[in-house]
Amino acid sequence: MKQESFSDMEYRCRKKKTKREEFLEIMDEIIPWEEWISLVVPHYPTGKRGRPPIEIETMLRMYLLQCWFSLSDEGVEDAIYDSYAMRKFMGINFFEQDVPDATTLLHFRHLLFDAINRCLEGAGRMMRGGSIVDATLISAPGSTKNTEKKRDPEMHSVKKETSGILV
User: Fold this and answer.
1) Is 77 exposed, middle or buried (0-12, 13-18, 19+ CB in 10 A)?
2) Which of these, 75, 89, 92, 157, could form a disulfide with 71 (CB 3.0-4.6 Å)?
3) 36 within a domain of the structure (yes/no)
4) Predicted confidence (pLDDT) per residue in 13-60, tens digit
5) SS (H, E, C) 41-80
6) Is residue 154 domain-resident?
7) Distance of alpha carbon 32 from alpha carbon 10, whole angstroms
8) How many domains does the chain have?
9) Rounded distance between C-alpha atoms, residue 25 and residue 42, angstroms
């Protein structure tokens, strides 16, 4: 059992939990951490050379915080230092360890994407970047906000269709 820090004792006496803290507690309960870790282990560095790698679960948690709260690499690092709820979700006690830095998270994210791409290629699939754009035309009243209160005939981008006949 981990020893409780002073901030843990202080926060335990609060009367209310934040919505962020409640969300992170729920996510911590429902995510199958052991299963996810076992998927990453074959692709994760063993630490035989260089500095020892940070635990996979810690890096997964940091990556999820980044995704859930739309944070940059530096932003998630700062948010973990600032937010008790995020630090608690990460399981970091500042007496024992530091928050992984932004570069470490960047390398972890690249490792995840490379592993996903290898799995897809092994299955004969390919993933490419792109974006989904919604180009749906909707009905809207025409604008007549000019001095003559008339539409500019040169300012049109689509043909208007009424009852199947193009106008």
Assistant:
1) buried
2) 75
3) yes
4) 667 888 999 999 999 999 999 999 998 998 888 878 877 889 999 999
5) HHHCCCCCCCCCCCCHHHHHHHHHHHHHCCCCHHHHHHHH
6) no
7) 30
8) 1
9) 28
pTM of the model: 0.67
Residue ranges making up the domain that contains 20: 6-122
How far, in Å, CA of 107 to CA of 103, rounded? Answer: 6
Concatenate the DSSP letters of all residues of 101-138 into one string.
PHHHHHHHHHHHHHHHHHHHHHTT--------------
d(CA 162, CA 166): 7
CB 99 within 8 A of CB 148: no
Q: Which residues pair with 161 in a beta bridge?
A: 166
User: In this structure, is residue 27 part of a structural domain?
Assistant: yes
* Domain assignment of residue 43, yes or no: yes
Helix or strand or coil: residue 166? strand
